[in-house]
Write a structure and sequence with these properties.
single chain, alpha+beta, Immunoglobulin-like, Type 1 dockerin domain, 10 helices, 18% helix, transmembrane, membrane
Amino acid sequence: MDEDIKQNPPQEPASYTRPSNSSPNFFDKFFSIFTKKTAAGLVILVLVIGVGAATIAVQRSTEFRQRAGTSTPPRNLQVTTSCLEPGNTPKVKFTWISGSSSTLWLDVSKNDPILYNFWNRDVTVNINGGVFNWSTNAKMKLNTSNTYDYAPEQNTTYYWRLNDGLSNTNGPTSFSTPVTCPIPTPIPKTPPCFMPKSILKNLGLPTNAKRGYGDVNWDDFITKTDENWISDVVAGENVFTEQAQYEAADVNDDPNAPSEDDDVDSKDLALIKQFLAGQILTFRVCPATTPTSTPTPTIIIDTIPPTSVIAYPPAGSLQTGNFTVGVWDSDTGGSGLDLDKCDYAVFDQGGPGVPNTPRPCSTSTRANIQITVGPNGNCRTIGTNMCNVRVGSWDHANNRALPDGRSFSITYAGATPTPTTTIIPTGTVAPTPTTTPGATPTPTPTIPVGNTVFALSIGLDGLGTTGDNSTPGDSSGSNRNPNRPSRNVRVEVFDGDDNPAANRSGTIIYNAGSGKFIGTIDMGTLASGNYNVKVKSDGYLRRFIPGIHQNVTSGQTYNLPAVNLVTGDINNDNAINILDYNILISCSIFSVDNRALCNGNPQYAVLSDLEDNGVINQFDYNLFRRELSVQNGD
């Protein structure tokens, strides 16, 4: 029995767990069938596959080199930035000369010169034209997306390239979009019609009163202020204080129908906006002022000036001989372009140039002007942007186009370079001050001991290190060498109840180091207390100085917070409006009244020179337009 047990030991129970030594058993079996012949065959197979793959790679590489060698990449890559009309978003224009590839993509990255993450757009359709305008009207997509939803951002640096399927061609430089694209402020407009006598009598007003439709603040013009007031009333955020204001705002009313409060609605507001934008010339209510006893012909009220635009050559381009300036003229106001009243002028840095001179108007083709270059030519001063050509036109309603001008660089054989780099077109010259330009004298007023003194640091828009109202920190276009370094200033002080506490005048002097106007003002025996302070200088809007709620102690000197003053108040009524605009135009090189309005006040010519450089031209006009977003002083 014992023998049986030894010969047949009991079997172990069945297990469903993999034995720990199962792997060695597997490899033993595998290598048992892996003979020397099999191993040699596998080695040969690997070598054959490797050689074949290498051959294919060499063929592909050779093919790419051959293709690259026979194709030409795009060239002459250029980029320009501007603002998309009506002026509230950036626009980027890419141009190039295409190569031989049938595929072309434009890649753009933000602050990434390597273009690791980028937006792109297929510009193959433009492969022959070589131009693409990137804006809110034509957006790009992220390279990992199919959604075209990215438009250029303001004040942003970008890098770009073109990809033709074989290689990348980088843009020559990065580019930056404009810091800001402000929406232009509409120029004030005269009401197209006025309330008839029957309406004035119904309102209890004298029948000879002048109340224009659309003018609800009674300043005789329709402006952005009127639009804002009407908008507030329509939104229920405010009410008019006079019934006549509701009548003036109800421009969508039937003629001779008195208006009620609820008559002013979104339709009236839309008409006001269209009128300011130049899209309509009159209101529905206006026929009420037209006599109906006898038929009258339809009268076109044209208040829209024509446009004259220089088409070529490019601004800043180098001209080495006589050249042609191409001009487009057009009129959309209804009265039509006056074909006998198109003109041009040339302003040369060192020569007489050409005064306003008649020229052909463009009709179906561009009008061409011949400009001469040389020692006796229209453009005779060698240098960068030394010669400026300006064009203008009139329509039959006697509206004048806003002048368009371009500056050109000049060189020719035998010319002597002009040492100056300051471009000042000749034209209407502002009165020259007796002080030395650019001087920085220190004001030394005699202030009695014990008086309170206010120390001022004031930035004047367009001068020194002060920009303009829309971009106060950008002084790249400001005049750092003003002709009038000494300016008057008036300081008004009010107590906590807004009662006048002091009103003193003094002088501020331009400091070339800081680019600001500084000075100390004797405030007399101003009593101790908390005050509000406002400052004004001739030609600038009055401004409230923030943060002056201090416990002023009589007899001490206080450094008031710095403040910038808005320019353009030429008639010194603490407002910027059509009255100042008319004076500016009359005093400028574009005067249409032989300076009649300008000569009415000896200060007009001085204060119209907003850039204070001795000439009143398109640069003063452009600064005036940028300042118009603030129309009233504090």
